[in-house]
Amino acid sequence: MDEIQNLLTRGVEKIYPSRQELEKVLRSGKKLRLYQGFDPSMPSLHLGNFVGLMKLRQLQKLGHKVIFLVGDFTGMIGDPTDKLATRKMLTREETLKNSQTWKDQASRVLNFEGDNPVKMLFNSEWLDKVNFKDLIGYTSHFTFQQLIERDMFQKRLKEDKPIYLHEFLYPVAQAIDCIVMDVDLEIGGNDQTFNMLAGRTLMKGIKNKEKFVLSTKLLVDKDGDKVGKTTGNALFLDSTPENFYGGIMSFPDEVIALAFELLTEVDLEGLEAKIKQDPMGEKKRLAFEIVKLLWSEEDTQKAQDIFEKTFQKKESPNLEVKVIKNAKLEDALVELNLAASKNEAKRLIQQGGVDVEEEKVVDSNFKLPENKEMIIKVGKTKFVKIKKCI
């Protein structure tokens, strides 16, 4: 399989208008201008974003012009995709604060320097300037029927739940991004297909130009649930190598092959047979490959050693002590990046997913003792040694 075939098939769910048409353009030698948008609703990039970064990495290596777009304007609206209730609107300050370390995180996978650097843009640069007249012009290319057909809106209608007007404008705003940046291709998870196709509609309507859409597969289990978002297993790129390695080791065996496809550059030939013969060995190889890509081989080896000692040999982990400011357990989990928000931290605690010094804590108001070293464990494989400062 050559590099273009690999690009068009590895981790790919669907290509619009077709794989054949995109392949024809790629083989012509044309260098595409492309992007993926990242929603700053959380202070760190996560496992789902990592899938997209790997596809952007492939395209950058082939010499195409990659844009890493921070949706600091659209993040204030809130993407309604898969949401059965209206998302809380964020402030500009929140979106900028959440994305302030993203370039450092993404630079582990993408190159922001050199001969063909990735460009990092913020869509508030142009969306802040859209006036009401412009907005009427943009929305004239969409029909109400086209926007209301989304599954989550239909379900809300049946359940008599509100759909707010600003939620209809999210895909329109994302489509405006495509017009302003004048891209040839947009990348995103297959749950973003509706939003990405809105950009095709607007590009054809305003510029009479083809915009390709490439949707990537999602890392989901046999029930269709996103891996990494189950109790205690959310994986963020500002985590530690030890917790990331442990989080991958908690993946169900059924997703090992898919994770290799989406999150590594490992040759996939013969992989299914290897997994069938030695699932634990292949899962450890998967964890090693992913963590090595995001950190260093030395950090990865250390993370693997800690995992083997702690979870396979049942020894106490030798961890660096982290000094924290928050005494309340749910706040401490957020501070330690063991939960994305206070709501998630509360849910993890109440569902029995958090241990303090090997004792399960189900009270989210639990106060950590001061000036004492202790180990907090979230889920089966995420742990950190902390000391509450006085």
Automatic annotation (TrEMBL):
Residues 327-387 form the RNA-binding S4 domain. GO terms for biological process: tyrosyl-tRNA aminoacylation. It comes from the Bacteria. InterPro entries: aa-tRNA-synth_Ic, Rossmann-like_a/b/a_fold, S4_RNA-bd, S4_RNA-bd_sf, SYY-like_C, Tyr-tRNA-ligase, Tyr-tRNA-ligase_bac-type. Keywords: Aminoacyl-tRNA synthetase, ATP-binding, Ligase, Nucleotide-binding, Protein biosynthesis, RNA-binding. It holds the Pfam family tRNA-synt_1b. PANTHER family: TYROSINE--TRNA LIGASE, TYROSYL-TRNA SYNTHETASE. Belongs to the class-I aminoacyl-tRNA synthetase family. This is Tyrosine--tRNA ligase. It comes from Candidatus Shapirobacteria bacterium CG03_land_8_20_14_0_80_40_19. The gene is tyrS.
